[in-house]
Specification:
Largest sheet: none
Number of strands: 0
Number of helices: 5
Number of domains: 1
Shape: elongated
Structural class: mainly alpha
Order of helices and strands: HHHHH
Length: about 160
């Protein structure tokens, strides 16, 4: 029973990893649904409402819950507070205020906030990528371009009977 004292199910690390898994599974479900849904099929009112609620919950998880759980884990469990200075790899990043050569102080809170910004950036670029994949599903312009042969003037060649 002593194993579960440090990392219980209410632990911030478990909550952070669980929120990541939930966001990845929900994103994977979008790709699964994109393969099933034919391109150009009209969307009913109910499907639109369900899709908007699903995307709203996914955006809430990836922009609200995941960074919050990261910051909670870093500040509470890891002790990345603003009063702890980061010295880095030996004396390489030792600040001048502590007798080193590095020109400014880096706190652990600044590092945890930077990681949160990186999480936001990864999710934003991933969201744009998923939008592009959804909008371009079924787009066979490359396959169509390969089938149509063009003359040196850029006109499609038509076979004369």
């Amino acid at each position: 029973m002593a194993v579960f004292t440090e990392y219980s199910f209410g632990s911030p690390v478990v909550a952070f990893i669980s929120s990541l898994i939930i966001s990845f599974l929900m994103t994977g479900a979008i790709f699964w649904y994109a393969k099933r849904r034919p391109v150009g099929t009209p969307l009913t009112w109910g499907e639109a409402m369900l899709a908007s609620a699903y995307v709203f919950f996914l955006v809430f998880v990836i922009y609200g819950v995941v960074p919050h759980q990261w910051l909670t884990w870093a500040e509470n469990e890891q002790g990345w507070r603003p009063d702890r200075l980061f010295f880095g790899w030996g004396d390489i990043v030792k600040p001048k205020s502590q007798g080193g050569w590095f020109p400014f102080d880096i706190t652990y809170r600044a590092i945890s906030d930077t990681v949160a910004v990186v999480i936001y950036g990864i999710f934003l670029s991933g969201q744009i990528w998923v939008w592009a994949k959804w909008q371009n599903r079924g787009d066979d312009s490359k396959a169509k371009a390969a089938l149509v042969k063009k003359s040196t003037y850029g006109r499609p060649l038509v076979k004369q009977g």
